[in-house]
Inverse folding.
């Protein structure tokens, strides 16, 4: 039985030049490299320049993904951009990216699911492609979280960084119609607004008319994270008959090494299958999965035919998983 699948043609990423180390942070706030590394696994993060916006990061990541796919931007007819740090309240940052790439056909829109944004965007694009509405999509996660951090709050400002990652998807007929197909095999999205005050930004155009700063009850987020992540991964396993042993690479949202390790351990995923970039990137929210993916593709770990498990959890709470064959 044949099936239309969203096959990944290429991926790419971009990180701003400026690197902010834990040691440098410790000269500005009451923290230490040891505390940050022990609690989170983060050693450094990239910070966008003042004149560098989310769209600029996204355009660079998109161009890298198109080059990797050996595709001209004109072949793209859908752009779904996940971000919580748009250039402006409106229009969508995706439209700036579309314009920056010289595209004026098809559709481009933003999607906001905080740290789960990339998984939500992937699922959205996948559904449009499999429905036959579009042929080739750019799915982008791009963030400038440095702009919404309270740099005096040591409980949050040490955790986040800036960056962007992108994948190019193409609707392709696959022959088997089962989990041996290439492309996105299944996606699972969840949210529960009862937790909306545990991780939020205390400003916005409709409430305070300001941008606001990120606020988080770190312990509460930590408490829920592993259970939510593993639940939604089990949903993906049950939907496909795939088990943890079948996974070649686990590419989680890079929030915190302890959350990633505990999730992998609970699911019996071997540590050597886990792609970790949180040490170098910090938590880049919607950008973290495609940034990690691009690293593992570039260094040759991810090969054609490999089975990838993606997951994320973030503000809302929102959480989700995706299985895809490279
Ligand atoms: N440096 C030094 N000390 C610090 C720092 C810091 N950067 N931040 C907080 N502390 C202090 C606190 O003030 C507190 O001191 P006190 O005991 O004297 O009051 C002490 O460290 C313990 O604070 P907690 O907040 O309880 O520390 P905890 O062990 O929970 O670690 C952390 C905090 C790292 C935020 C943890 O709760 C966590 O990882 N939570 C998950 C949050 C997360 O990953 N969010 C990302 C977004 S959501 C997502 O993407 C999944």
């Amino acid at each position: 039985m044949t099936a239309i699948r969203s096959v990944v043609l290429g991926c790419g990423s971009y990180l701003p030049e400026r690197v902010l180390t834990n040691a440098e942070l410790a000269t500005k706030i009451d923290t230490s490299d040891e505390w940050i590394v022990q609690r989170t696994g983060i050693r450094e993060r990239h910070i966008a320049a003042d004149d560098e916006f989310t769209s600029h990061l996204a355009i660079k990541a998109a161009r890298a993904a198109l080059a990797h796919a050996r595709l001209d931007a004109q072949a793209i007819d859908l752009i779904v951009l996940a971000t919580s740090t748009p250039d402006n309240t409106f229009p969508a940052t995706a439209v700036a990216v579309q314009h920056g790439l010289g595209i004026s056909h098809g559709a481009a829109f933003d999607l906001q699911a905080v740290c789960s944004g990339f998984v939500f965007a992937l699922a959205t694009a996948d559904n449009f492609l499999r429905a036959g509405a579009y042929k080739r999509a750019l799915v982008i996660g791009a963030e400038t979280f440095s702009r919404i951090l309270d740099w005096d709050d040591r409980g949050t400002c040490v955790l986040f960084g800036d960056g962007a990652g992108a994948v190019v998807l193409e609707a392709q007929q696959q022959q088997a119609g089962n989990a041996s197909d290439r492309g996105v095999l299944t996606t699972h999205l969840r949210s529960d607004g009862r937790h909306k005050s545990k991780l939020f930004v205390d400003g916005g155009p409709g409430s305070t008319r300001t941008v606001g700063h990120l606020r988080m009850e770190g312990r509460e987020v930590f408490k829920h994270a592993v259970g939510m992540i593993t639940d939604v991964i089990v949903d993906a396993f049950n939907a496909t008959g795939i088990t943890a042993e079948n996974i070649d690479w686990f590419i989680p949202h890079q929030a915190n090494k302890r959350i990633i390790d505990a999730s992998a351990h609970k699911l019996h995923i071997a540590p050597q299958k886990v792609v970790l970039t949180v040490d170098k990137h910090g938590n880049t929210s919607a950008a973290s999965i495609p940034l990690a993916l691009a690293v593992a593709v570039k260094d040759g770990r991810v090969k054609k035919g490999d089975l990838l498990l993606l997951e994320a959890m973030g503000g809302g709470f929102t959480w989700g998983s995706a299985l895809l064959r490279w």
The chain has two domains: 3-174, 183-325. The pocket of acetyl coenzyme *A is lined by residues 31, 35-36, 39-40, 115, 154-155, 158-159, 199, 216, 218-219, 221-222, 225, 253, 255-256, 283, 313-314 (CB under 6 Å).
